[in-house]
Design a protein that fits this description.
The chain contains four helices and five strands. The protein has about 160 residues and is an alpha+beta fold. Helix 2 packs antiparallel against helix 4. The longest helix has 19 residues.
Length: about 160
Amino acid sequence: MTDKLTHFDEKGRAQMVDVSAKADTDRHAVASGRVVFSKSSYEIIRSKGVKKGDIGKIAELAGIMGAKRTSDLIPLCHPLPITGVNLEILPDDEQHAFNVTVKVKTTGKTGVEMEALTAVMTACLTVYDMAKAVDKSMTIEDVKLLEKSGGKSDFTREAK
């Protein structure tokens, strides 16, 4: 680890890290997560839906909106000009889950990992909100960064 990983100045005060000396580069991040239901609840949600509307479509929109508002939600996170958000929610009949994957892109001085993770969490929380009348015991699981590129380092999570 480096001693530059801090949001504190030399006097111990919180600060937003100054990225002005960094070059603008194309950057992207991919994150994923899932909402897992009981089998019976999953079958109800998949077959009949819920009274609030199409869970997947509404959660996709909410996730995109979450990515765009990340700097409002995460202290000291830089506001970024996001150039693309692709969020997909797919049902997983075997695991009784909705799998969420998002890719966020920008050209800038800092990466979009936080935007990708915020989009996943916002989508998962929206699924929870819309389905809680059917299954309050559902869980949000396995939220993680899968990959990022741009800047000084790239990352790809190794498959298990």
